[in-house]
Write a structure and sequence with these properties.
The chain has 207 residues and is α/β, with parallel strands linked by helices. Helices cover 29% and strands 28% of the residues.
């Protein structure tokens, strides 16, 4: 379908009929010990990106992009723990049309007051839809998942779930897309190879 926004992963774009509709919000849910940051990097490739980091300092995040060959470095801004929703709102409201917003991670924001958090998500969605942009929420599924994770997944237009399993001497990564407003959810998972970049794992499953 024409007009879709690329995920940065060609095979995934094909499975999603060309990518993600403009104006969408995407929740990428993954374990902290996974390589899910590589997927975030792919989202920044094709469009100007504002990368909000709530866990790491700006230089550490920018350095990761500078070390990736052929990658543009997005604008990286740190969101402090003091009034994070208000700080993040001021930043995303300056986003021009057709841009990508990445929030890494959402966990700090999800721990804020329930009513304020819902209003924040509503304002963000309105801005992204009005500018044909794309917002990607990095949601860490660790030992302490925020109470408002269900709200994030419910509000998001698309949900990606990255599952990392260790079996014997292999690390296996599978990406599921169980929710997709404006398109079709995928009936099967996609096996990914996450090393220094993202590629499709073509090895066959053995029953």
């Amino acid at each position: 379908m024409s007009g879709r926004l690329s995920t940065g992963i060609p095979v995934l774009d094909r499975e999603l009929d060309g990518g993600i509709p403009p104006g969408s919000t995407v929740a990428l849910c993954a374990r902290p010990a996974s390589q899910s940051e590589l997927l975030l990097t792919e989202f920044t490739v094709s469009r100007p990106t504002l990368y909000l980091t709530t866990d790491r300092d700006e230089e550490a995040v920018s350095g990761r992009f500078r070390r990736a060959p052929g990658r543009r470095t997005p604008e990286v801004r740190y969101v402090p723990g003091d009034a994070p929703l208000e700080h993040a709102r001021r930043l995303f409201r300056r986003l021009p049309g057709g841009s990508t917003l990445v929030i890494d991670s959402m966990n700090l924001l999800e721990r804020q007051d329930s009513s304020r958090y819902r209003n924040f998500l509503h304002d963000l969605q309105q801005h992204v839809r009005g500018t044909d942009g794309l917002a990607v929420f990095h949601c860490l599924d660790g030992r302490s998942v925020p109470d408002r994770r269900d709200v994030t997944e419910h509000v998001a237009d698309v949900v990606f779930q990255l599952r990392t399993e260790i079996s014997g001497d292999r690390v296996e990564n599978r990406l599921a897309v169980p929710k997709f407003r404006g398109g079709r959810a995928l009936p099967e998972t996609i096996k990914l190879e996450l090393t220094e970049s993202v590629s499709i794992d073509m090895s066959r499953d053995i029953a």
